[in-house]
Amino acid sequence: MAYELAPLPYDYAALEPFIDVQTMTLHHDKHHQAYINNLNAAIEKHPELGKHTAEDLIKNLSSVPEDIRAAVRNNGGGHVNHTMLWEIMKPNGGGDPTGAISEQIKKDFGSFEDFKKVFNETTAKQFGSGWGWLILEGGKLKVVTTANQDNPLSSGHFPILGNDVWEHAYYLKYQNRRPDYLAAWWNVVNWDEINKRFAEATR
Ligand code: MN3
Questions:
Q1: Ligand 1 centroid to residue 107 C-alpha, Å
Q2: Residues 78-135: tens digit of each pLDDT
Q3: How far apart are CA 164 and CA 168, in angstroms?
Q4: Residue spans of the chain under pLDDT 50
């Protein structure tokens, strides 16, 4: 198989009480695995593509053969997005941002509280399934959303952080209260990893 699911980098219960163990188990073992299975099934039709990383595939969707392009966009995106999500969370995370991203947030949004408000309000409004993202555009941080499993990489932006607002990400614990999930999520973010991604975005 060209693509494989990495183990969750912490225990399934490690993000309690903000993200419950059942959601983490289903989200990683079933949802993320399904994106990988579907991506592998699509790649079987064009095995030469399997030498590329999933990131490279979604960065260059126009080079993916048309018969599997939608499958790669959705399932390659699903794989890349969830791999990032597990990495930018950690037990005992959260708190104020650190390092270079902290300075950039202050510069572009005024304060961490103002940034969170923009991110949470923008992402809460994403209609249906999708993601909220922080990207760098023209040297400035910007909050954007995408539908489905689309990733900013496909439009040339390396995502610094992103959060999943598909109902499977929060419904078991938060039901229809997407804003409550978005507010709670900041308690588990991993600023060290987000700083690494910010450095990558600025390269
Ligand atoms: Mn998801």
A1: 31
A2: 999 999 999 999 999 999 999 999 999 999 999 999 999 999 999 999 999 999 999 9
A3: 9
A4: none
In the reported structure, the alpha carbon of residue 120 is separated from the centroid of ligand 1 by a whole-number distance in angstroms of 17
Q: How far is the CA of 85 from the centre of ligand 1 (A)?
A: 9
Instruction: Please name each of the domains of the chain with its CATH number.
Output: 21-87 (1.10.287.990), 99-202 (3.55.40.20)
- Write the DSSP assignment of 143-163 as a string of letters: EEEEETT--GGGGT---SEEE
pLDDT at residue 1, rounded to an integer: 77
Ligand 1 centroid, distance to 165 Cα (angstroms): 7
Q: Whole-model pTM?
A: 0.97
Distance 110 CA to ligand 1 centre (A): 30
The two tokens of residue 138 are 């023209």
